[in-house]
Amino acid sequence: MSVRTVSHLKKGEKGVIKSITDKTMSLKLLEMGCLPGSEVRLDAVAPFGDPICINVGGWYCLSLRLNEAAVIEIE
């Protein structure tokens, strides 16, 4: 079974955050509300595919680069 991350989501698709794999980026993402158990939905993708806009917990939209989204594991 392969690991899915936020960078694998298609527009409108949802996932629940399982963990953050990059220790250096984890504090930044946690402070921005990307907490384990939070639901995320991919809302928008820039014309060239990077950055993306995700909705976190139904509260707000967060813009992330694909390399940042790739460290957020979802289920």
Summarize the structure.
By secondary structure, this protein is α+β, with helices and mostly antiparallel strands. It has two helices and six strands; from the N terminus they run E-E-H-E-E-E-H-E.
Describe this protein's structure.
The chain has 75 residues and is α+β, with helices and mostly antiparallel strands. It has one domain (4-74): SH3 type barrels (Roll). The protein is 17% helix and 39% strand. The protein contains 2 helices and 6 strands, in the order ββαβββαβ. The chain has helices at 23-31, 66-69, and strands spanning 4-5, 14-20, 39-45, 52-56, 60-64, 72-74. It is globular and about 30 Å long. The N and C termini lie close together (11 Å).
Describe the SSE topology:
Elements: E1 4-5, E2 14-20, H1 23-31, E3 39-45, E4 52-56, E5 60-64, H2 66-69, E6 72-74
Antiparallel strand pairs: 1-6, 2-3, 2-6, 3-4, 4-5
> Which value, in Å, is the CA radius of gyration?
11 Å
| Sheet with the most strands: spatial strand order | 1-6-2-3-4-5
Protein structure class: alpha+beta
Number of beta strands: 6
Number of domains: 1
Which CATH first-tier class would you pick? Mainly Beta
Distance between the termini: 11 Å
| Uncertain residue ranges | none
CATH superfamily: Ferrous iron transport protein A (FeoA)
The number of helical elements comes to: 2
Specify the overall morphology: globular
Q: State the share of residues found in helices, binned by percent.
A: 10-25%
The CATH architecture term is Roll
Our estimate of the beta-strand percent is 35-45%
What CATH calls the topology is: SH3 type barrels
Note the main sheet.
Answer: 6 strands, antiparallel
